[in-house]
Amino acid sequence: MKNDRLLHDKDTNVVYLSPVLNTEKYGKPEFYKELMSLLKGMDIETRELKCTRDYWARDYMPIQLSENEFLKYHYCPDYLINKDDIDSMTDVPKVISGMGLNCRSTNLIIDGGNMVPCGPYIVMTDKVFSENRKKKDDADFKALLESELGHPVIIIPWTPYKDDDVWTFGWIHQMVWR
């Protein structure tokens, strides 16, 4: 495990947005305009991603682990199971090819909404085990996860509930605030 200083959202210098967020059909154009105005007013640089099909970029884009280190994971969440959902999935290699990012890759199935940097740790729900077809107490898988991420991982239990997005999808970023 490398364990260099873990980069947190507040330490990044650019906000990337999907143009899908600014469309009438799939997005929220009023929100997009307000967000862009707020970011500009705070002197935060924004860039638009190319070739996206979904505006939830946090879920599928590589995680920035340190200043110049990004990890591209396999984004294939279990909640995107029908043809319409699969057709809405962004081709991440196509998006990052024009960005100039140097990414390491892993075959682990990860949903970016299930990763939050917290101090030197990455916090995730144990949904990452089931998405990778592993038992929740699989120590070898946890060691592999930590090795691939280069940081220790804290696992929080996850129980799905149909009427609650946080628990349906297993997104830790709505439960843990940095």
Low-confidence stretches: none
Distance between the termini: 22 Å
Helix content: 25-40%
Summarize the main sheet. 3 strands, mixed
Task: Indicate the structural class.
Answer: alpha/beta
Which series of helices and strands comes N to C?
EHEHEEHHEEEHHEH
Overall average pLDDT: 85
Number of helices: 7
How many whole angstroms does the radius of gyration measure? 16 Å
- Identify the overall geometry: globular
Strand order of the largest sheet: 3-4-5
Q: Could you tell me the strand content as a percent range?
A: 15-25%
Tell how many strands the DSSP assignment holds: 8
Fold and architecture overview:
The protein has helices at residues 29-41, 57-60, 83-87, 92-97, 127-131, 139-149, 165-169, and strands at residues 14-17, 45-48, 63-66, 69-74, 103-109, 116-118, 121-125, 153-156. It is 28% helix and 21% strand. The radius of gyration is 16 Å and the shape is globular. β3 (63-66) and β4 (69-74) form a beta hairpin. The mean pLDDT is 85. The chain has 178 residues and is of the alpha/beta class. The protein has a three-stranded mixed sheet, with helices on one face. The protein has a three-stranded mixed sheet with strand order 6-7-8, with helices on one face. It is built from seven helices and eight strands; from the N terminus they run βαβαββααβββααβα.
